[in-house]
Amino acid sequence: MNISHYQHACHWLAYLGSRFVAMSVLLLSFLGSAFAADHAVILMYHRFGEDRLPSTNIRLDQFDAHLEKLSSGNYSVWPLAKIVDHLQKDMPLPDRTVAITIDDAYLSVFTEAWPRLKAKGFPFTVFVATDPVDRKNRGYMSWDQLRQLQADGVGIGSQTASHPHMHLSSLADVDAELEKSNQRFLAELGLRPNLFAYPYGEYNLAVIERVKAADFIAGFGQNSGIAHGYDGYFELPRFAMNEKYGTMDRLTLAIDGLPLKANQILPADAVIAKNPPDFGFTLAPEIATKNQLRCFNATYDQLQISRLGPRAEVRFPGPLPSGRARVNCTMPGPDGRWRWFGKQFLVP
Q1: Inter-CA distances, 87 with 194, 208, 227, 230, 240, Å
Q2: Which ranges of 97-170 does DSSP label H, i.e. alpha helix?
Q3: CB 306 within 8 Å of CB 262
């Protein structure tokens, strides 16, 4: 090789080396941004194609559209257990990570949802109350069917034995519910779940402590919001999907959502002692100076908010009706996305 050819080869190798370094930096930058999230969206379903019960049902055409949206390439559908593990270990998640959860183990999960989810390769978790399965209640899955789901890699979570209103139960009864269901899971599935969904999304502080004492690692409600763990892992939110609230616009708003991180939430207990409650929370430092915080309630629509630094105090113009009452707070985020924080109150 003469000197000119040698110099040309060196220049070409140097060029290729610089291009490789540039591409490597670009790839690492992409991966860093794609895996920069510390939050995930958790969807909650109940029934599939059971049109006579629209409040807990999603129509099959709606569900098919949801799955098509989730398979568009913009979203990462992960097992719920994997998401919880990443959050608790401060391991980053892909942006727009989504978990699919299903409550109550209705038969339509087995006949309608599972084939569709399996065809898409989407993992999901079923939260099971064991008594209806033991009693072979009409419209519920059997233990044999649950074993088939388990063998296929479907996550199994607990929802007690009898699906009670837990905040109205004695602590002894709460403990008995958790122990009974755990024993049934062990007997039938060979495991006891470590993820727990509160029946009806209802709990109080005492119930949370009993769930923790029973060695569950996370608890899930039915209030809207983005799961992140900033304020702990036993009041994690989920977006409920049904015929009315399962539109594509709402689904898109949810799965593109960002967390509105808050802690020091008062009242701390979901069961309020004062009606209306004095509701307030402290925003996380990264959003503490952001404006356009809005909070809404079904009874009073937009609520009055007072801001003092990172602290937000929300006031209701009158008492809340008895039963479950929810407040959804939002704030605009980057790229047209919205930050979400939801709180459920139980009004005696």
Answers
A1: 15, 19, 9, 9, 21
A2: 107-108, 114-120, 130-134, 143-151
A3: no
Distances (CA, A) of 139 to 46, 126, 157, 161, 177: 12, 15, 19, 17, 22
Give the span between the Cα atoms of 338 and 300, in whole angstroms.
Answer: 21
Q: Is the peptide bond before 267 cis (omega within 30 degrees of 0)?
A: yes
Q: Give the ranges where the chain is alpha helix by DSSP (H).
A: 3-34, 60-70, 80-88, 107-108, 114-120, 130-134, 143-151, 171-189, 205-213, 248-255
Quick: pLDDT tens for 13-67: 343 343 433 333 333 333 334 557 999 999 999 999 999 999 999 999 999 999 9
Does the model's pTM come out above 0.70? yes
247-302 confidence digits (pLDDT tens): 999 999 999 999 999 999 999 999 999 999 999 999 999 999 999 999 999 999 99
Antiparallel, parallel or unpaired: β 262-266 and 258-259: unpaired
301-302/294-297 β-pairing: antiparallel
- Counting every residue written for the chain, the total comes to 348
Model confidence at 313, in pLDDT bands (50, 70, 90)? Answer: very high
Residues in a beta bridge with 329: 295, 341
Residues 6+ apart with CB under 8 A from 275: 319, 320, 347, 348
Structure tokens at 52: 């006579």
Q: Which two tokens stand for residue 266?
A: 């008062």
Distance CA 23, CA 15 (A): 12
The pair of structure tokens assigned to 156 is: 């199994």
CA separation (Å) from 134 to 71, 146, 162, 272?
35, 12, 10, 35
